Amino acid sequence: MDAIVQKKPSRAEAEAAVETLLRWIGDDTTREGLIDTPSRVAAAYGELFSGYGKSPEEVLGRTFEEVAGYEDIVLIKDINFFSHCEHHLVPIIGKAHIGYLPDRRVVGLSKLVRVVDMYARRLQTQEAMTAQIADAIETHLRPLGVAVVIEAEHMCMAMRGIRLQGSTTMTTTFRGSFKNDVNSQLRFMTMLRDSA
After folding, report:
1. What are the boundaries of the signal sequence (predicted)?
2. Span 1-60, pLDDT tens digits
3. If 60 and its partner were Cys, which of 31, 92, 114, 140 is the partner (CB 3.0–4.6 Å)?
């Protein structure tokens, strides 16, 4: 089934929606501190959710074959990110760890950080984001294996509902050699832990 394509609202419509929410919570949108808030929120959303305007093809499109015979795990850990929960629109604050086993091709290390940033700057669940990052690397880099671990605190749990501060959720995705070979998976997790 094809996805429904919705017309993107104008900037003025977005600002009007923010003003409506401000009135709904009971504040006075004519007071000095809130007069420009709808405009500021629309601009902030443009930045916070800029991941929708990017694709994995752009980010991971350029790879390198010149690796001087390197054929072991490439690991980038502690990639800090901010995202937003798609259920409540509140922040998810965390860090991602990415490992891959090259198959004659590598990608610039900053590109892996950009992939995390691209998916983080969309409305997310942590589980989906973990899978999306792994899918993008697997599809565009075609490594022998991919491992993605995300640790994050969800403000939807800390600020509302159960109001539990400080708890961390961990999600993992293993593909290729990391999924099929327990020793590779263990080695990745050991590298992650030991370099802490």
Report:
1. none
2. 556 778 999 999 999 999 999 999 999 999 999 999 999 999 999 999 999 999 999 999
3. 140
Q: Which ranges of the chain does DSSP label H, i.e. alpha helix?
A: 11-24, 37-48, 56-60, 109-120, 126-141, 155-158, 177-180, 182-194
Q: What is the C-alpha R_g of the chain?
A: 20
Is 97 catalytic? The answer is no
| Arithmetic mean of pLDDT over the chain | 93
Q: Which amino acid is at 92?
A: I
In 3D, which of 132, 124, 128, 150 has the Cα closest to residue 55? 132
Asked about 84 being catalytic, the answer comes back as: no
85 is in an annotated binding site: yes
84 is known to lie in a ligand binding site = no
Sign of dihedral through CA atoms 90, 97, 106, 144?
negative
Give the Cα separation of 194 and 78 in Å (integer): 13
Confidence of residue 166 (pLDDT cuts 50, 70, 90): confident
- Residue 156 bears catalytic tag: yes
- Among the listed residues 19, 88, 138, 153, the single catalytic one is 88
